[in-house]
């Protein structure tokens, strides 16, 4: 099935055709910027967790994830290591899948468990949308995956 959304700017379709070259020139780098920023932010967010993942045991068990120590380590590793992998564009789709799952669990945690509704889950929803986009699109042109010529 062909996409109805063009991947490059067709200047005949733009309201300001002169912007077509600008959009085309920024297409790959803008996606790389999104992927790198998402990865760096996740790694920074996961840094305190990776230093002492056992602090998370009670929280993950309260969500029904048992054994808690295993899931606490997986959560910490997914955020920190997954973030680094996203930033580098290495094993990008598996990292994006894992981080998207973690972020959807945080949506549940904030929206349902903590009864914060949309206001509490808003950031997690936005982050999950970003990591899902990366999952679907892959690493992009500026990535280690592309240099290795291997992708999932």
Describe the secondary structure blueprint for this structure.
Layout: H1 20-51, H2 57-62, H3 68-88, H4 92-113, H5 117-137, H6 144-148
What do these coordinates show?
The structure is a single chain. It is globular and about 55 Å long. Helix 1 (20-51) runs antiparallel to helix 3 (68-88) and helix 4 (92-113) runs antiparallel to helix 5. The chain has helices spanning 20-51, 57-62, 68-88, 92-113, 117-137, 144-148. The chain has six helices and no strands. The protein has one domain (26-148). With 152 residues, it is mainly α. The longest helix has 32 residues, at 20-51.
Q: How would you sum up this structure in a few lines?
A:
This protein is mostly helical and 152 residues long.
What distinguishing features does this structure have?
152 residues, mainly alpha, 70% helix
Count of alpha/pi helices: 6
Order of helices and strands: HHHHHH
- Head-to-tail CA distance between termini: 20 Å
Q: What is the average of the pLDDT values?
A: 93
Provide the number of structural domains: 1
Helix content: over 70%
Radius of gyration, taken over Cα atoms and rounded to an integer in Å:
18 Å
Percent strand equals under 5%
């Amino acid at each position: 099935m062909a996409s109805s959304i063009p991947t490059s700017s067709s200047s005949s379709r733009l309201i300001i055709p002169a912007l077509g070259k600008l959009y085309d020139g920024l297409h790959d780098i803008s996606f790389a910027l999104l992927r790198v920023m998402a990865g760096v932010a996740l790694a920074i967010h996961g840094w305190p967790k990776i230093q002492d993942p056992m602090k998370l045991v009670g929280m993950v068990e309260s969500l029904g994830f048992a054994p808690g120590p295993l899931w606490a380590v997986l959560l910490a590793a997914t955020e920190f290591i997954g973030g680094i992998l996203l930033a580098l564009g290495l094993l990008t789709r598996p990292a994006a899948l894992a981080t998207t799952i973690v972020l959807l669990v945080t949506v549940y945690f904030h929206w349902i468990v903590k009864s914060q509704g949309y206001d509490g889950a808003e950031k997690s929803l936005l982050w999950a949308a970003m990591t899902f986009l990366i999952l679907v699109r892959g690493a992009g042109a500026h990535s280690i995956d592309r240099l290795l010529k291997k992708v999932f």
